[in-house]
Write a structure and sequence with these properties.
The protein folds into 3 domains: 160 residues, no CATH class; 43 residues, no CATH class; 229 residues, Thrombin, subunit H (Beta Barrel), CATH 2.40.10.120. 24% of the residues lie in helices and 24% in strands. The chain has 12 helices and 20 strands. The strands form 5 sheets. A 6-stranded antiparallel sheet has the order 16-15-18-19-20-17. Strands 5-4-7-6 form a 4-stranded mixed sheet. Strands 9-8-11-12 form a 4-stranded antiparallel sheet, with no helix packed on it. The radius of gyration is 29 Å and the shape is elongated. 27% of the residues are buried.
Length: 493
């Protein structure tokens, strides 16, 4: 620091800049260089002289390590005001972190990598830290020194050394746009690794879009088979729009009307009597509504649960009963399409419902595996960085949580679609579409990071338990003795 060595006591739970700010000489020098960018270079580690950012954790600095502090011109792309890291404090243990090194000049086809070109001239490598549960993309974005183009274009990192990824790593950026290799015949690609290799031979964005469109088509082709389309059409006849005193509220499906608890709203907790008049509208498939059938709903709930059953399972369902079930006798009961088993973690699904309080629609989409949830969330957040604070506030207000009985996916179904049946690739019922991790985006339009359904088995278990308890209760009142197995025949769907 100004060619003078200064020793600082460093709280390992703080950042390097926090430690430097405890020194009066540094504060004065920084004040005289307010419009410049601070460059902090390490003297130890796998790549000496690599530059760390001001929010670099002190616990990753070696004991008695000498840091070289300098200032460079800021070209307007890098913030010079005091920044606050997203995590207000760090653990004093370095075990929770990973560090890696990236060359500032990049590969042959990368014209520019760093936001500040002066940094590229000043240092050959930058040192980036990440939390062990971070994705690489998120770590680079948080670092803030790299241009946004590398997150949009086809750029990758490759190792300059054969170091383990979990240890110190030195990498560089390169383009994934090599020369085109002609092939005489198409090749069947069963594995994703081969798909990625084939992608590298594409020369422009148009080819890339066509390629992924083709791969997407292969994935959804099961829902394009005529037999399955006909089957879904038949099953969709059992899906209805739920209206409360004439206004669309949600979606449900036969034999009894199964929907979400939040669609029903208020009711008498003792008698389970609904506070408003409900109607199930079948066949609402166009605005003219010539073939719709409106069936009144009985005023008492057949079953209901809204909340945690245990720490892993959450339920949000209501079971309504039609006043005249015979009127819909020609429609299949969708619970007959359910097969006992755990909720799927991957594959295609199809949702049938009334999104936007409109006509009946279908949306084929894909399950997001639980191991890919963080990556999917990071992708959405990176594409909507202006609304990160909105998402954060919403998540704190609503206490966003994940549960074992959730099936996660991305769909265009929002308001009005709660209670829609979710089918797998074989047209079996697997869940009830319930909601999404929503927030208000641009122009106050509702956006969602991802959407989810609750799987069928816990719902059915709860329904059977509730109805069995009621059967026993009424049987005891009528006959003053324990119920027989004959009583249990009332539990049918």
């Amino acid at each position: 620091l100004s060619c003078i060595e200064r020793y600082l006591a460093c709280d390992t739970s703080k950042t390097v800049l926090d430690a430097l700010n405890t020194n009066k000489i540094f504060r004065n020098i920084k004040k005289n260089n307010q419009n410049k960018e601070i460059v902090i270079q390490k003297s130890k580690g796998a790549v000496p002289r690599a530059a760390v950012k001001t929010d670099f954790p002190c616990c990753l600095i070696e004991r008695h390590e000498l840091l070289d502090i300098s200032f460079i011109k800021n070209h307007g792309n890098v913030a010079t005001k005091k920044e606050t890291t997203r995590r207000l404090s760090f653990s004093n243990e370095s075990k929770g972190f990973v560090i890696f090194y990236i060359k500032t000049k990049g590969g042959k086809k990368v014209k520019r990598l760093m936001k500040n070109n002066e940094l590229r001239k000043k240092v050959e490598d930058v040192c980036v830290y990440a939390f062990k549960d971070d994705k690489l993309n998120a770590a680079l974005r948080r670092d803030g020194r790299f241009i946004n183009a590398i997150f949009k274009k086809q750029c990758v990192l490759y190792n300059l050394e054969t170091a383990d990824l979990k240890e110190n790593k030195r990498s560089t950026m390169k383009s994934t746009k090599p020369q085109i290799h002609k092939t005489n015949s198409p090749k069947i690609i069963p594995k994703s690794e081969e798909i990625l290799k084939q992608r590298e031979n594409l020369k422009n964005k148009t080819e890339i879009k066509k390629f992924f469109r083709a791969e997407y088509d292969k994935s959804v082709q099961s829902f394009l088979e005529v037999k399955k389309v006909k089957q879904l059409m038949k099953l969709s006849d059992s899906v209805c729009q739920i209206r409360v005193e004439g206004s669309a509220r949600g979606t449900g499906f036969l034999r009894f009307i199964l929907t979400n608890a939040h669609v029903v709203g208020e009711f008498d907790p003792f008698t389970r009597k609904l506070s408003k008049t409900f109607t199930a509208v079948f066949g609402y498939e166009d605005l003219e509504a010539k073939k719709t059938r409106c069936v009144p709903v009985k005023e008492h709930l057949a079953a209901y649960y809204h909340g945690n059953i245990n720490t892993e399972t959450y339920l949000d369902f209501a079971l309504l009963e039609l006043k005249d079930a015979d009127e819909m006798a020609d429609c299949p009961g969708l619970l007959s399409r359910y097969i006992h088993g755990p909720p799927p973690n991957r594959g295609g699904i199809c949702i049938v419902g009334h999104p936007g309080e409109g006509v009946k629609k279908m949306d084929p989409c894909f399950i997001i595996g639980k191991e890919n949830l963080q990556e999917a969330a990071d992708k959405h957040i990176s594409e909507n960085v202006n609304f990160i604070h909105v998402m954060t506030q919403q998540s704190l207000a609503e206490k966003w949580e994940m549960h074992d009985n959730q099936i996660i996916y991305n769909t265009c179904f929002f308001h009005g679609s709660s209670g829609s049946p979710v089918f797998d690739e074989d047209c079996y019922l697997i869940g009830v579409h319930t909601g999404g991790y929503a927030y208000k985006g641009e122009n106050c339009k509702t956006r969602s990071i991802m959407e989810y359904a609750y799987s069928m088995q816990p719902i059915l278990d709860s329904i059977i338990t509730q109805i069995a308890q009621r059967c026993r209760y009424w049987y005891f009142l009528l006959f003053r003795k324990r119920p027989t197995s004959a009583c249990m025949h009332c539990i049918s769907f």
